[in-house]
Amino acid sequence: HLATSLPLPSERDHLRPGIDLIVFMIDIKSKYSLKKVEASLAYVDGSFFLGKVCFLVTGVGRVNYCSIDTSAICKLGEAYCSPVLFCELELEGIRVATAQRLLRMLQICAGFVPGVSALSFGLLMRKSADD
């Protein structure tokens, strides 16, 4: 399911399935995109930041058009203990690899990968980013 911002409308709460993973998309060419994500973060329960949230930064292949400093986004990921993925959606190979990575994250968060929890996966993601 896709939403342009949070909170989600309450009129369909009874029809909405459980949420296993939240992916906040940030367009690096738009400061408004980052502001919208920052405003939406207040509506996410704190327990979700334990392995069930990630930030997907798009447009990174066009460095000349960046409106957001990548360090600001990395600090956001650190502040919310959530991984930050950078990608360029216009390149098919990177788009496919990113989709596969997000799907694997979703499988883990939904509990479909035995022996791996969302929390342990989140810690592994953070550790690999630190290396």
Automatic annotation (TrEMBL):
GO terms for cellular component: chromosome, centromeric region; nucleus. It comes from the Eukaryota. The keyword Flavoprotein does not apply. Pfam families: CENP-M. The keyword Nucleus applies. It is found in: Chromosome, Centromere; Nucleus. Keywords: Centromere, Chromosome, Nucleus. InterPro entries: Centromere_Cenp-M (IPR020987), P-loop_NTPase (IPR027417). This is Centromere protein M.
